[in-house]
């Protein structure tokens, strides 16, 4: 018995692609999931009390913490009423042996930029609502997403973390005293943000041009390079389609992905709603 | 009671603790799947994650030590962990100094001579900060190293203590630290009763040093009890799971 497991382990290390293929022939994944099954997802809101809004998201072993801090700043000359929302993703060397200490890796910057683009193009938050006083003071929301454990599909975890943390944000009531040129804010945090839509993502990998792997783990990501991410909102509208690597994706695959992404939306929305309910009870 | 009095008339501190009371410690080993060993520790509102990788191949050839393992420690502070968001540079000098203190604390304890030419990395991530950076980093690293199965001579447990007028107080939080109370951090080897680290950065009368050190050592022993219980419970659980009969 023990020699057999040893052999499987050696096989996995030497022939990772063949190893995965053997599983997929039987319509099952190495971690025991079905092909179109997501890993267990949990959301924990308001876990960091130094922030204005925070959330911890786990998809399987992948864990990210998103914290949002609000600060006052001066608006741009060209858009005097608009505040700022600055997302930033950190992939520290702690979360995987792949990452080295040093400046943010290309991967982390790609994630940050994708999230930034999603925020802008889907106009999730109307930046004009962050205005305290036109031309002199606006809120800046710094959304820092720290990846703690990297086991694949970090982009999904980051987006869910960001959206749930944004819906968890409470800002103080702020007024601008014109004579002194100062912003005064109340101690209590009361005002929630007004989010125009709550998009949630679903990510897929295509392996061997035929197997569609939902919610890939780190091991699966490293052998299947073709990745599709679809983000849709509560109305089932698509906010983003992002497909990179490989050439085997057909329109049929894409259709299937979209329908799974819509089902996934309902699943995540239910998880978040549950967490919000239990959070309000406390 | 004034907001700035560290100890109120009933002898209670701002957060309701007695002078010689530790903050509530909550800890858990083996929380991350990617690292060889990890831990999460909460001491009051200070929350810290530790991950240990190694012993593994040294990344930079020039750093190879031929007779023992190289230890590296990196501390990162999540940008949202403090009440003021400061985009601290990764190589903030203060953090570097604490990281170096943690590294020097563990160098004599880890049996590095067993792993020549290799490297052991300790990564610490502060998620929320409310005082006691050095102590929580050391405690989290101890638990993560145990989880990684890296041979050590014994536990290292750290605790801080300070003094207000004539009362020594244990385990300062951020608001007490910012009042300028002298703070002394001690890292103790609880079995051999040796001290591997003792850090004091503020002015303190030499007569008071002994009582403050004694208080910190007392705290470190309590931390040891907690860490030891946690890791024993965890190992017990593992044993039970691997052999259910």
UniProtKB/TrEMBL annotation, chain A:
Keywords: Cytoplasm, Exosome, Nucleus, RNA-binding, rRNA processing. One of its GO terms (biological process) is U1 snRNA 3'-end processing. GO terms for molecular function: mRNA 3'-UTR AU-rich region binding. One of its GO terms (cellular component) is cytoplasmic exosome (RNase complex). The keyword Transmembrane does not apply. InterPro entries: ExoRNase_PH_dom1, ExoRNase_PH_dom2, ExoRNase_PH_dom2_sf, Exosome_comp_Rrp42_subfam, PNPase/RNase_PH_dom_sf, Ribosomal_Su5_D2-typ_SF, Rrp43. This is Ribosomal RNA-processing protein 43.
From TrEMBL, chain B:
It holds the Pfam family RNase_PH. The keyword ATP-binding does not apply. InterPro entries: ExoRNase_PH_dom1 (IPR001247), ExoRNase_PH_dom2 (IPR015847), ExoRNase_PH_dom2_sf (IPR036345), PNPase/RNase_PH_dom_sf (IPR027408), Ribosomal_Su5_D2-typ_SF (IPR020568), RNase_PH (IPR050080). Transmembrane segments: none annotated. Coiled coil: none annotated. Keywords: Cytoplasm, Exosome. One of its GO terms (molecular function) is RNA binding. GO terms for biological process: nuclear mRNA surveillance; poly(A)-dependent snoRNA 3'-end processing; rRNA catabolic process; U4 snRNA 3'-end processing. PANTHER family: EXOSOME COMPLEX COMPONENT, EXOSOME COMPLEX COMPONENT RRP41. This is Ribosomal RNA-processing protein 41.
């Amino acid at each position: 018995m023990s020699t057999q497991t040893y052999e499987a382990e050696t096989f996995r290390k030497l022939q990772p692609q063949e190893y995965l293929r053997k599983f997929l022939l039987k319509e099952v994944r190495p971690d025991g999931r079905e092909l179109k099954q997501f890993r267990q997802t949990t959301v924990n809101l308001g876990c960091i009390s130094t922030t204005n809004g925070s959330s911890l998201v786990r998809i399987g072993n992948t864990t990210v913490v998103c914290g949002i801090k609000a600060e006052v700043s001066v608006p741009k000359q060209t858009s005097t009423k608009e505040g700022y929302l600055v997302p930033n993703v950190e992939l520290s060397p702690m979360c995987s042996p792949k990452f080295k200490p040093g400046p943010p890796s290309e991967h982390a910057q790609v994630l940050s930029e994708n999230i930034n683009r999603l925020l802008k193009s889907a106009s999730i938050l109307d930046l004009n609502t962050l205005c305290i006083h036109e031309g002199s003071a606006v809120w800046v929301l710094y959304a820092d997403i720290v990846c703690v454990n990297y086991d694949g599909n970090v982009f999904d975890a980051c987006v869910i973390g960001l959206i749930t943390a944004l819906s968890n944000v409470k800002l103080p009531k702020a007024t601008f005293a014109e004579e002194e040129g100062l912003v005064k804010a109340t101690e209590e945090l009361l005002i929630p943000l007004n989010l125009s839509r709550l998009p949630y993502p679903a990510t897929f990998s295509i392996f061997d041009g035929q197997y569609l792997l939902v919610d890939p783990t780190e091991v699966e990501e490293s052998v299947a390079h073709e990745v599709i991410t679809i983000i849709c909102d509560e109305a089932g509208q698509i906010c983003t389609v992002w497909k990179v690597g490989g050439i085997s994706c057909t329109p049929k695959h894409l259709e299937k992905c979209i329908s799974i992404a819509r089902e996934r939306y309902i699943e995540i929305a239910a998880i978040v709603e549950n967490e919000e309910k239990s959070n309000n009870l406390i | 009671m004034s907001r700035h009095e560290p100890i109120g008339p009933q002898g209670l501190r701002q957060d309701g603790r007695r002078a010689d009371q530790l903050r509530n410690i909550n800890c858990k080993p083996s929380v991350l799947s990617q690292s060889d060993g990890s831990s999460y520790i909460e001491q009051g509102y200070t929350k810290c994650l530790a991950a240990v990788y190694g012993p593994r191949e040294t990344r930079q050839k020039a750093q190879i030590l031929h007779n023992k393992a190289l230890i590296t420690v990196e501390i990162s502070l999540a940008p949202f962990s403090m009440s003021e968001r400061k985009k601290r540079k990764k190589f903030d000098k203060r953090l570097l100094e604490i990281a170096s203190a943690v590294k020097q604390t563990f160098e004599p304890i880890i049996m590095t001579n067993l792993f020549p030419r290799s490297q052991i990395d300790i990564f610490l991530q502060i998620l929320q900060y409310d005082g006691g950076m050095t102590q929580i980093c050391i405690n989290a690293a101890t638990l993560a190293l145990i989880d990684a199965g890296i041979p050590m001579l014994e536990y290292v447990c750290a605790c801080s203590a300070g003094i207000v007028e004539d009362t020594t107080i244990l385990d300062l939080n951020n608001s007490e630290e910012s009042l300028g109370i002298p703070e002394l951090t001690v890292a103790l080897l609880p079995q051999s009763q040796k001290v591997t680290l003792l850090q004091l950065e503020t002015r303190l009368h030499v007569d008071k040093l002994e009582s403050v050190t004694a208080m910190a050592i007392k705290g470190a022993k309590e931390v040891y009890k907690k860490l030891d219980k946690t890791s024993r419970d965890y190992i017990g659980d593992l044993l039970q799971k691997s052999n259910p009969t």
